[in-house]
From TrEMBL:
Pfam families cross-referenced by the UniProt entry: SecG (PF03840)
Protein localization: Cell membrane
Record's function text: Involved in protein export. Participates in an early event of protein translocation.
Cellular compartments per GO CC: plasma membrane
Keywords annotated in UniProt: Cell membrane, Membrane, Protein transport, Translocation, Transmembrane, Transmembrane helix, Transport
Tree of life domain: Bacteria
Biological process (GO), any one: protein transport by the Sec complex
One Gene Ontology term of the molecular function aspect: protein-transporting ATPase activity
Membrane spanning stretches: 20-38, 69-93
Family: Belongs to the SecG family.
Transmembrane helix keyword on record: yes
Protein name: Protein-export membrane protein SecG
Topology with respect to the bilayer: Multi-pass membrane protein
Length: 94
């Protein structure tokens, strides 16, 4: 049996970690797309954001029920996506 050197063992561990984080990043990105697509629209159309619908878009209305869950999921998945992207970039350059 061929024994691996310390550097080769570290490289293999780093590659396994990189592969695992990359798979997690892909899963989170798909989930993020799904969660964002499931969120209800706030206004009737895009033009209403510039006309009379701006107060609805930027108002202080708090989401309730399923809409609140989707908003929280979007924030959590977005933070995880960003953190994993930073971790993947760090591993790639080292």
């Amino acid at each position: 049996m061929l024994e691996l050197g310390v550097e080769e063992t570290v490289d293999r561990r780093a590659m396994k970690l990189y592969d695992t984080l990359l798979i997690a990043e892909l899963i989170i990105s798909v989930l993020l797309i799904i969660v964002v697509a499931m969120q209800p629209t706030k206004t009737n159309n895009a033009a209403s954001a510039f006309t009379g619908g701006a107060e609805q878009l930027f108002g202080k209305q708090k989401a309730r029920g399923f809409e609140a869950v989707l908003q929280r999921a979007t924030v959590v998945l977005g933070i995880l996506f960003f953190a994993l992207a930073l971790a993947l970039a760090y591993i790639a350059i080292h």
